[in-house]
Amino acid sequence: MALQWQAVWEEVVIEEYGIKLKVYRDKVTGLYACPICGLHDKASYFFTVKDLLTHIASHALRDWKSQRIVVKEVEELEASEEEY
After folding, report:
1. Is 60 inside any structural domain?
2. CA of 55: how far to CAs of 60, 68, 77, 84, in Å?
3. pLDDT for residue 84
4. Does residue 2 sit within a domain?
5. What pLDDT does residue 48 have?
6. Which of 20, 27, 43, 68 gives 37 a disulfide partner, CB atoms 3.0 to 4.6 angstroms apart?
7. Coil/strand/helix, residue 26
8. What is the pTM of this model?
9. What three-state secondary structure class fits 40?
10. CA 25/CA 50 separation, integer angstroms
């Protein structure tokens, strides 16, 4: 029994919830690859478009949270400098 498969990727356009994306889909398994993660060993693959879009949204949310943390630290730094 093999633990890996030989992927045959095709570029497809998906449209869901008013969102259009070009993504790679494996012809053999039907898996969709995250266009942000790419196609490599640690990439993310999904069986449904809904799961793929949820994952892509998590990329945006993670980036948004990290930006909030940086802004908060800068504001705290500026506030501490004003005290001196």
Report:
1. yes
2. 9, 20, 33, 45
3. 54
4. no
5. 94
6. 43
7. strand
8. 0.68
9. coil
10. 14
Assess contact for 43 and 52: CB atoms under 8 A: no
Condensed to tens digits (0 to 9), the pLDDT of residues 29-47 reads 999 999 998 888 889 999 9
Residues 9, 26 contacting (CB under 8 angstroms): yes
Mean of all residue pLDDT scores within the chain: 80
Strands 9-16, 32-33: pairing is unpaired
pLDDT of residue 59: 85
Which of the four pLDDT bands, split at 50, 70 and 90, describes residue 80?
low
Q: Which of 57, 4, 46 is nearest to 23 (CA)?
A: 46
Q: Which domain holds residue 61?
A: 9-83
Q: In whole angstroms, give the CA distance from residue 82 to residue 19.
A: 45
Residues 22, 31 contacting (CB under 8 angstroms): no
Closest to 53 (Cα-Cα) out of 9, 13, 16, 10: 16
Structural domain contains residue 16: yes
Which residue in the block uniquely carries the two structure tokens 């908060």? 72
